[in-house]
């Protein structure tokens, strides 16, 4: 049996709530343990620790020194158990940055108390566990949020003098060096009952947390040493007034930026901590809801140095700006877009086959949440409805999606065309950036662009979203992107599938695919019309949006080899991060192309995806004709120039891996090419005459003057 304890990180104080309020956020410490019955163990306290993630080089793996296991031993000893059962295997997976004000120590302590509760079968209530946590971390904000989840307010009892004395007794009395004393064999002092109290507040779902995480640590202990021991009545009243309003204001939809921004001011801790965090005051004052729409408020996260900016939109712009402000102090930062972890600490057991036979199982216990699936359907209904078109109402919930061809304008039976595709590894950049609302556009684009090259009008779309554990927020953002793509292509999103498959995908990741159906009116030419193509026909190229949705395995390799993070500035695009530039959605060419198709201006089209110009152009040509393309006739976008140079990509490989700046290539009769350009330019396209068709003697596509790419 493997038991998994999952504890969220937390942001404490939220401005005026020093030592009072905490917000659990969705980065989780995981402690997995098994107890393997053995007569004895050679590990200290019978516990073997392995560790992966943040701090793997610094966090001690000796159970007497490690914060998680030391905390667990304290709780066990309070219950007369001197050590872990022989032999306990503890594996820690920690993605929480240490010493940055995101409650890593609070999470470790909560995990330790839960670990003791599980291995010792102590049956402690959460309230009692909070008492134990508070023996180690004396401020309740982080531990209460991590234990209970969500946005919490806390207070500690005023203790009797003897209890205060006991509270002061540090862990060192019960644990051997270096924690302090020798193992006396005595029971350690137990915490008084019900020391900590908490209340959960509402949190408006549109408020997200931008965490700007500087590349240096500030220990919470040090950040408490710089605080005064006494405050003026004026400063205390200042904070209390703001705190009282803030806790309600953050639960109201829509949130009031003016109120929240002012209510997040503080006079009790931030002004004193500026000595530890260069530029803190200036950075906190550098953004307002007026200067940065979407921003609600900004403060130090916990004891810092992380900055917490609450916002409803424009997350990346706000983050980029704050990162630039830190740069002025020569501090580099990482950033994360986080959201509240409502559930708090969870403990799950993965049973071995023999114990599995004993339990009453549920679908949820196997990791599939029907409730989350239902919540997602509710969330996406309105976005899906915006894709309604003639013939389809785009209402989800049925077993199959429908479209009435007659209502869609097809009175005679049309030719139906289907396409199916995925996004590829571009999704991995969405995971890195925590931005899920554009890859759905890529998914639609990859399909509908394939339909339109046949001359078909896209009519309906269905998407497939598969993940390990369904995160309603990111799945809803993904579907909003799909709906956006469908609106651009004017096709109805008539259905889809969300598959939650624990164990199949990595946690926090997903994959997506989709299929589109379109139609060609009876009598209209099906493209490519290879019979009509002749030598001298002109090739037109339509500008792309950079790398569309293929070639990303190579792109990711180049970025990795260049040592860049996706949050770093894009070397090829000022003011944009690597990730946001690469997430630019694939261009959807449907609406600009359909009028030109209807006018009979186009003989054939090639959607430039994997295989690039070299492989895709010949797909639309007859065997006797070849494309002669001049590499000087269109500009290669800066992103491609940088990728080519950084990856030392040879010219022919370049023309095969990516679209080089052209997302679509058209064959047009030479007499119609200027009219076609006019029609396409009027529809907003950038068009280049890139070559002509000639008699084929060898390759189906030759790129001349390719050396301009050197
Ligand atoms: N998962 C963990 N395992 C062991 N020790 C940890 C873990 N997480 C945090 N700690 C300890 O807590 C310290 C950070 O605590 P603290 O200064 O309170 O910062 P934070 O703001 O991250 O809570 C780390 O340097 C480390 O010693
Ligand atoms: N209220 C405490 C919160 C410390 O949080 P951490 O995440 O920095 O440990 C304080 O401000 O000292």
UniProtKB/TrEMBL annotation:
Protein name: Homoserine kinase
InterPro entries: GHMP_kinase_C_dom (IPR013750), GHMP_kinase_C_sf (IPR036554), GHMP_kinase_N_dom (IPR006204), GHMP_knse_ATP-bd_CS (IPR006203), Homoserine_kinase (IPR000870), PurM-like_C_dom (IPR010918), PurM-like_C_sf (IPR036676), PurM-like_N (IPR016188)
Summary of the function given for this chain in its UniProt record: Commits homoserine to the threonine biosynthesis pathway by catalyzing its O-phosphorylation.
Coiled coil regions in record: none
MF terms (GO), sorted A to Z: ATP binding; homoserine kinase activity; phosphoribosylamine-glycine ligase activity; phosphoribosylformylglycinamidine cyclo-ligase activity
The organism's place on the tree of life at top rank: Eukaryota
Pathway in which this enzyme or protein is active: Purine metabolism; IMP biosynthesis via de novo pathway; 5-amino-1-(5-phospho-D-ribosyl)imidazole from N(2)-formyl-N(1)-(5-phospho-D-ribosyl)glycinamide: step 2/2; Amino-acid biosynthesis; L-threonine biosynthesis; L-threonine from L-aspartate: step 4/5
SUPFAM superfamilies named in the record: GHMP Kinase, C-terminal domain, PurM C-terminal domain-like, PurM N-terminal domain-like, Ribosomal protein S5 domain 2-like
Domain GHMP kinase N-terminal, chain residue ranges per copy: 66-150
